């Protein structure tokens, strides 16, 4: 299946969380395509630096606002109709689940409803950044989109998992009731330049530790797995979904599944570090294994990840090396 670009010059796209890691890469590709892009961000986990190289472009506007309060009415860039709304805003690191629980609940729920209302008013395509966390600690492996998941509704991860599950339900509710054109992407562990070294997720943490020759803090025995995706592959997948007329949910990521111990060793070796692995306490409800079934993405969108873990990690290590001096 080949998907033709649906959004390009003349189209106005709203990206919430546009100054974040993944969304800033999306913004850049949309601008390169000729779209007019408005990014709304409150910088709770993102930063202006991520889009500093884009602010001079006449087709780009960055608005500082909390989308859980609704879109600001006074800003001229937000007054005109949007052709597509990409709801990417949300803290996403498990560290944030304890630090920003209410913000996460609000941006997944209240903000999603505000943005869905706006999409109905504008007749826009609405794309939701959902997550592999919708599957919780999965009993099915690899995870297909038909799997309903295994989420602890009151556990330490639930503020994020259930907020995203609510956001999916809201998106489908608006699709069914209002006939809204929607798309849901379930994103699997993605990494790359512009992640924060102190963001708490495994890859930026391991790279920062390796570059400082500090112990690599592997949680538990490190036998738990993740399938890691370089940001360029994810962005291509999200744009294929945006350009299609598919509703989803569609998984996006790679099948490069590895244990966290293997990931730590790979990062140490690629960065030429002298770090040792240190085994530390593992958080509750941490998923045991995770790998997307990519059949739908391949069949509906023609999606194929291209970047190997070695290539992607090398690029990310180079970026961190420059940033950390
Ligand atoms: P990120 O924290 O770098 O980006 C999120 C952005 O949203 C940040 O710039 C943050 O400041 C902004 N934001 C948060 N709450 C906001 C609010 N109320 N109003 C305005 N802006 C707000 O994280 P990321 O990894 O780039 O994730 C982007 C999206 O993709 C998130 O929705 C996340 O849940 C989803 N996702 C990411 C991954 C991944 O592996 N990176 C996996 C699954 C899902
Ligand atoms: N992890 C780890 N050390 C760290 C951070 C994370 O071993 O310093 C583990 C974590 O317990 C999980 C995996 O790495 O099993 C992936 O965690 P991450 O926070 O990157 O993403 P998640 O998939 O849990 O959202």
TrEMBL record:
Keyword Transcription belongs to the record: no
Domain (NAD-dependent epimerase/dehydratase): residue spans on this chain: 13-251
Cofactor(s) the protein needs: NAD(+)
PANTHER family, A to Z: UDP-GLUCURONIC ACID DECARBOXYLASE 1 (PTHR43078:SF6), UDP-GLUCURONIC ACID DECARBOXYLASE-RELATED (PTHR43078)
Primary enzyme class: lyase
Organism: Micromonospora cathayae
Organism classification: Bacteria, Bacillati, Actinomycetota, Actinomycetes, Micromonosporales
Residue spans crossing the bilayer: none
Name of the molecule in the record: GDP-mannose 4,6-dehydratase
């Amino acid at each position: 299946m080949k998907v033709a670009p649906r959004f390009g010059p003349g189209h106005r796209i709203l990206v919430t969380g546009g100054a974040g890691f993944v969304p800033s890469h999306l913004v850049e590709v949309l601008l390169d395509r000729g779209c007019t892009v408005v990014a709304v961000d409150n910088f709770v986990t993102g930063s202006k630096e991520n889009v500093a190289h884009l602010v001079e472009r006449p087709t780009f506007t960055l608005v500082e606002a909390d989308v859980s309060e609704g879109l600001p009415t006074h800003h001229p860039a937000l007054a005109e109709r949007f052709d597509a709304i990409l709801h990417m805003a949300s803290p996403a690191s498990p560290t944030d689940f304890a630090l920003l629980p209410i913000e996460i609940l609000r941006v997944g729920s209240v903000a999603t409803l505000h943005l869905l209302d706006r999409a109905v008013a504008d007749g826009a395509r609405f794309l939701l950044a959902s997550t592999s966390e919708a599957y919780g600690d999965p009993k099915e492996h690899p995870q297909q989109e038909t799997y309903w998941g295994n989420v602890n509704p009151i556990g330490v991860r639930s503020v994020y998992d259930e907020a995203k599950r609510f956001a999916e339900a809201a998106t489908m509710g608006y699709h069914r009731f209002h006939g809204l054109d929607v798309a849901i992407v379930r994103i699997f562990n993605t990494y790359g330049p512009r992640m924060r070294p102190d963001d708490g997720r495994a890859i930026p943490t391991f790279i920062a530790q390796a570059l400082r020759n500090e112990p690599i803090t592997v949680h538990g025995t490190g036998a738990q797995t993740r399938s890691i995706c370089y940001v360029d592959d994810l962005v291509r997948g999200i744009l294929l979904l945006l350009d299609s007329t598919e509703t989803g949910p569609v998984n996006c990521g790679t099948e490069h599944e590895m244990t966290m111990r293997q990931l730590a060793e790979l990062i140490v070796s690629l960065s030429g570090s002298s770090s040792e692995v240190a085994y530390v306490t593992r958080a509750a409800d941490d998923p045991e294994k995770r790998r997307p079934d990519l059949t739908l993405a391949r069949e509906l969108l023609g999606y194929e990840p291209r970047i190997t873990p070695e290539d992607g990690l090398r690029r990310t290590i180079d970026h961190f090396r420059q940033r950390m001096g």
